[in-house]
Write a structure and sequence with these properties.
Length: 266
């Protein structure tokens, strides 16, 4: 079986590397294509994959075509791909917003999978939600799941709306965490800590809190109560967040990403 990854950026290269560790594929079964000259040179230096610049040299050999270009490049790419594809091939896209119907229309393929990963895939800690068109068989779906799981965990969702919704939570979510980290690091610097110490204080706090959360069934609210003493420092911070409506603003931000994903599909 051969997989062709189109778009060797943050996510495409991550998946190519993840899939190369799959027992289902060997390294030489992964082809990778990019249009950027700079990227091709980089791939030729570091990569153990077969690197391509021209669709016609690799698309016909692929069983699975994995699309990892930006959504605004999709139309042009699908138009170029369409004449080279055959109905047996499975298309997997990780592009935000781009719908299964749109991909089927432009490529002429029936077997299309839409997935939404996130950046921790780079270290095997990704979370990918996915859904497939009806033409993808159960066996093929297991194969797809195996490939997605090479970068972390995956969740099969029951309708395509959940792909846009998970874009607002897990897809874009790492950036919300980094936003919070950035604010806390800026506060630590303002309190007089060095850059290095600020980084350690913040990153260990995030790691420890997430590990605690993962080791029990307690809700985040319950954990907050365990940190906060009555009339103490944490309550002062949490009250400040509540007074400033931070909870609502974070939810609004997640919905902004969700809505943008829906908009990208139109
Ligand atoms: N970065 C992230 O955290 C996440 C990104 N995604 C999705 O993954 C996709 C890729 O995102 P990134 O990897 O961050 O982008 P990127 O900009 O790092 O990589 C895109 C690559 O596609 C190449 N490219 C552009 N047009 C092409 C074409 N016609 N044929 C072949 N290659 C072409 C570019 O040269 C570039 O190397 C996007 O659609 C995005 O919505 C999904 C979840 C998370
Ligand atoms: O920002 C974006 O559009 C992509 C999708 C989810 C994360 N990055």
């Amino acid at each position: 079986m051969k997989v062709l990854v189109i778009g060797a950026g943050n996510m495409g290269l991550t998946y190519a590397q993840g899939m190369s560790k799959s027992k289902l594929l060997k390294k030489r079964n992964i082809m990778i294509l990019d249009t950027s000259e700079e990227k091709i040179q980089e791939l030729n230096k570091i990569s153990h994959f077969d690197v391509y610049e021209d669709l016609k040299d690799c698309v016909p050999q692929a069983d699975i075509v994995f699309i990892a270009v930006k959504p605004y490049h999709s139309e042009e790419l699908f138009k170029a791909l369409a004449p080279l594809l055959n109905k047996e091939q499975i298309l997997i896209s990780i592009m935000a917003g781009i719908t299964i119907d749109y991909m089927k229309d432009l490529t002429g393929l029936d077997k299309v999978v839409r997935a939404m990963p996130n950046l921790p895939a780079q270290i095997g800690k990704g979370l990918t939600s996915y859904i497939a068109s009806d033409a993808v068989s159960k066996v093929e779906l297991i194969l797809v799941e195996n490939l997605l799981d090479t970068t972390g965990k995956s969740i099969l969702v029951s309708n395509e709306n959940f792909i846009d919704a998970s874009t607002g939570i897990s897809g874009s979510g790492p950036a919300y965490v980094f936003y919070f980290m950035q604010s806390m690091m800026e506060a630590a610097l303002q309190m007089g800590f060095s850059k290095n110490i600020s980084k350690v204080l913040v990153s260990e706090t995030f790691t420890g809190a997430v590990e605690l959360f993962n080791q029990s069934d307690y809700s985040p609210n319950k954990w907050m109560d365990m940190v906060a003493s009555k009339g103490g420092t944490t309550r002062a911070a949490l009250d400040s967040m509540e007074d400033n409506n931070v909870n609502e603003l974070i939810k609004e931000a997640a919905f902004a990403a969700f809505n943008r994903a829906v908009e990208l599909g139109k």
